[in-house]
Design brief:
Elements (H helix, E strand, L loop, with lengths): L1 E8 L3 H11 L4 H10 L1 E9 L2 E8 L5 H9 L2 H11 L2 E2 L11 E2 L9
Antiparallel strand pairs: 1-3, 1-4, 1-5, 2-3
Length: 110
C-alpha cells in the first residue's frame, strides 16, 4: 500500500537546513522501527517549508501499529521530540496533528 502525507516545517532557513541534515543521517533505530511497522520504503520531498512524504508498506502495516511501536520506543520518542522542534501543523490540522494523510485524486496505470 502507498500512503502520502504532508507536513510543514517552521519557516526558518536555518531550521530547515538542520532538519535536512538530520535526514541525511537518520538514526538506525528509527529505520529499524520503520521495518518493524511494515514500512518498505519512505521518501520525503520538500518545497519551501512544505514536506511531502511517500511511504510504501506491506500488508502488516497500520497507523495504529506504527503509533504503538513508536510509543514503546524511547529512541523513537527522542527522535520525534527532536523533529518537533522543526515541524508545525498544517493549516486546518485537527488537534495540532502534524503529518496529514493526503487523499489521492488522480492516478494513471503503469
Amino acid at each position: 500500500m502507498r500512503y502520502c502525507l504532508a507536513l510543514d516545517l517552521k519557516n526558518d532557513p536555518n531550521l530547515i537546513e538542520e532538519y535536512e541534515k538530520h535526514h541525511q543521517a537518520v538514526w538506525p533505530e528509527i529505520l529499524d522501527s520503520f521495518k518493524e511497522a511494515g514500512i518498505l520504503s519512505m521518501e520525503i520531498f520538500r518545497w519551501e517549508n512544505r514536506l511531502f512524504l511517500i511511504m510504501d508498506t506491506d500488508a502488516s502495516f497500520s497507523f495504529e501499529r506504527k503509533n504503538e511501536i513508536d510509543a514503546n520506543s524511547p529512541i523513537v520518542q527522542q527522535w520525534e521530540n527532536l523533529m518537533s522542534t522543526y515541524q508545525q501543523a498544517l493549516p486546518g490540522s485537527k488537534s495540532g496533528e502534524k503529518w496529514q494523510l493526503m487523499k489521492r485524486i488522480f492516478h494513471t496505470e503503469k
